[in-house]
Amino acid sequence: MIKVTVPATSANLSVGFDCIGLAVDMQSKFTFEHNSNADLTISGCPSEFQNEDNLVYQGFKAVCNAIDQPVPKLSIQIHTNVPVSRGLGSSAACIVGGLVGANQWFDLPLNDQELLEIATKMEGHPDNVAPAIFGGLCMAFVDSNQQVQVVKYPVNKALQFVAIIPNFKISTAAARSVLPSQMSYPDVTHQVSHSLLMTHAVETGNLSQLKEAMNDRMHEPYRAKLIHHFDQIKAICNQFNSVLYISGSGSTMMAVTDQPTIKAQLVAQIKAAFPEWQVVPIMVDNHGAKSEVL
Ligand code: HSE
């Protein structure tokens, strides 16, 4: 049996729209076994996803196709706490889980960069799949040769993250449909400078710089309106001098502080205000996807 573990991912980090993502220690686990009864059995997900369109299976198949191997009869088990359509990279985790599972199945014919190329084609953008594969904070984009460039940035250990996960979904398609189609030169300059400052502040752990840097003009002003109570969450974060960004396309928001005591206070206050939501202290996952043969 093959077991694969893939971290959830939080894309954009405010000013890194579609090119920056962070792996966090909320894991999805997938097992792959030979199936003697049927071509495909999938368990651990809603029945509507227990078929050949399942992204884990699609990922597995993509590696088989890339290395010219027939797709084996498979039994796939999925165990995940990553909520769907909440901006925590649930689809990227499934794609990467399938890719890494198949790669292990065939004794690792592809390297991580090759897996990233396939994953990016499947997902459409690399900002979740890159950290899901490599771990940590990754900047990634498709270059002029249609290759995925990826750079991993250090994350200062002083930074403390809290995932604030509402009890409602926002589809990525809906969250992209509210974005304007153009930006002005001043706004682009603002965005480039602030995303450079953001990666620097994440590396040094300088929270006041991070607060200045996470001032997005590309997507957050439009998407915040889709997240009920965003302003209330922002006010709580301001009260505790912590920084807030929308994780991926939402609905999850990520609070960042540099004080463990503030982290605990943030969790308590937001849980009290929104008892139906999940408020989860979360660590950075620096390893990315892992596979083992059991
Ligand atoms: N970068 C993407 C977006 C993440 O913000 O739309 C969602 O998968």
SSE inventory with pairings:
Elements: E1 2-11, E2 20-34, E3 40-43, H1 55-66, E4 74-80, H2 90-105, H3 112-123, H4 129-134, E5 137-142, E6 148-153, E7 160-165, H5 172-177, H6 185-204, H7 207-213, H8 220-223, H9 230-239, E8 243-246, E9 253-257, H10 260-273, E10 278-282, E11 290-293
Parallel strand pairs: 3-4
Antiparallel strand pairs: 1-2, 1-11, 2-4, 2-5, 5-6, 7-9, 7-10, 8-9
Helix pairs in contact: 1-2, 2-3, 6-7
Residues 11-12, 17-18, 125, 127-128, 172, 175-176, 219, 248-249 line the site of L-homoserine (HSE).
Description:
The protein has 294 residues and is of the alpha+beta class. The chain has two domains: 2-154 and 285-293, Ribosomal Protein S5, domain 2, CATH 3.30.230.10; 160-282, GHMP kinase, C-terminal domain (Alpha-Beta Plaits, 2-Layer Sandwich). 36% of the residues lie in helices and 24% in strands. It has ten helices and eleven strands. The strands form two sheets. Strands 1, 2, 3, 4, 5, 6 and 11 form a seven-stranded mixed sheet that branches. A four-stranded antiparallel sheet has the order 8-9-7-10, with helices on both faces. A hairpin with a 5-residue loop joins strand 5 and strand 6. The radius of gyration is 19 Å and the shape is globular. The model has no long low-confidence stretch (mean pLDDT 97). The structure holds L-homoserine (HSE). The site of L-homoserine has 13 residues, from helix 5.
